[in-house]
Amino acid sequence: MSLVEYAAADGIATLTLTNPPANCYSREMMTELDAAILTARFDAAVHVIVIRGAGEKFFCAGADIAMLDGADPYFKYNFCLHANETLLRLEHTAKLVIAAIDGHCVGGGLEIALACDLRIARAGAGKAGLPEVKLGVLPGTGGTQRLVRLVGKPKAIELMAVGDTFDHERALELGLFDHLWEAASHEDFHAKVRAWAQQFVPPNAASRAVGLIKRACQTGAEIAIADGLALERELQQRLFESEDAREGLAAYNQRRKPEFTGR
Length: 263
Description:
With about 260 residues, the chain is an alpha/beta fold. It has 2 domains: about 5-200, Alpha-Beta Complex (2-enoyl-CoA Hydratase, Chain A, domain 1), CATH 3.90.226; about 205-255, Lyase 2-enoyl-coa Hydratase, Chain  A, domain 2. It is about 50% helix and about 15% strand. It has helices spanning about 25-40, 65-70, 75-90, 110-115, 145-150, 155-160, 170-175, 185-195, 205-220, 225-240, 245-255; strands spanning about 5-10, 10-15, 50-55, 60, 95-100, 105, 120, 125-130, 165, 180. The protein has a 6-stranded mixed beta sheet with strand order 1-2-3-5-7-10, sandwiched between helices. A hairpin with a 2-residue loop joins strand 1 and strand 2. Helix 1 runs parallel beside helix 3 and helix 5 (about 145-150) packs across helix 6. The protein is globular, with a radius of gyration of 19 Å. Keywords: Lyase. One of its GO terms (molecular function) is enoyl-CoA hydratase activity. This is Putative enoyl-CoA hydratase. InterPro entries: ClpP/crotonase-like_dom_sf (IPR029045), Enoyl-CoA_hyd/isom_CS (IPR018376), Enoyl-CoA_hydra/iso (IPR001753), Enoyl-CoA_hydra_C (IPR014748).
C-alpha cells in the first residue's frame, strides 16, 4: 500500500498521507513524499500542490513514535535530516502548496503543514500544536525554525515549551492557519479546497508568476534586503520573458480578461 497517494487532475496535484489511524510518518513515508514532490515539480501540467491526510480524524500526528522508540540515535539523526530535506524541497518548488487540514494536525504533522505556503483547516475538526517537549525532545522537522518565523520568538518559545495542543480556532488566532472553513463533511471540505485552489490554475491565474512570488518570498525572507531585491529583479526578468506576461499586458491594454497558460 502506498503511504503517499498521488493524484493529479485539473492542474492540481493532491498528495494524501495514508497511514491509518493517525497518518504518522516513517522513513518510508518521507521517501514517498519526497518522490511525490519531485513528480509534481517536474509535471508542467501541475500548477498547485495540495497536501492532505487520509480520513477525517487526522491530517498527520507526526512521526511514528513506536518506530523512533526502537531506533538508534544514528538512524534518528538521519531520519530528521531526510525529513528536513524533504520539506525544504517542498518550499523550494516554485508551485503554490496548500495544506488541507481536516482532523488533528500535531507534532510533525504541524511541521509538514508549516512547510506549506498556505494552511486551510476545517472548523471544529481537531487539535493542533507542537507537544514534543512532553516526550523530552524538541520539534525536529523544522518546527523550531518555521514557527518562530511565523509567530515571532516569544510566542514560538512559549507554544513549544508548554507543549499544549489547541483547537483549530485558536490556531487561526495565533496565525498558524490562514483560513478556517465550515464544511458539512470531509468530502465537502476537500471539494471546497480544490475549488478555491482553482483560482491559482491557468487560465484563471499566471501560475508561473504565483510560483516565483513564492520563491521570492521564501528565499528573500532569509537574506539581506539588497540581496532579496536582486533576487526579485532576476525573477521578474524571467517573467517578463514569459508568454503569460505578454498575455497579461496585452489583455490589460485591450480591456479583456487574460487567458493564462502557465508558460
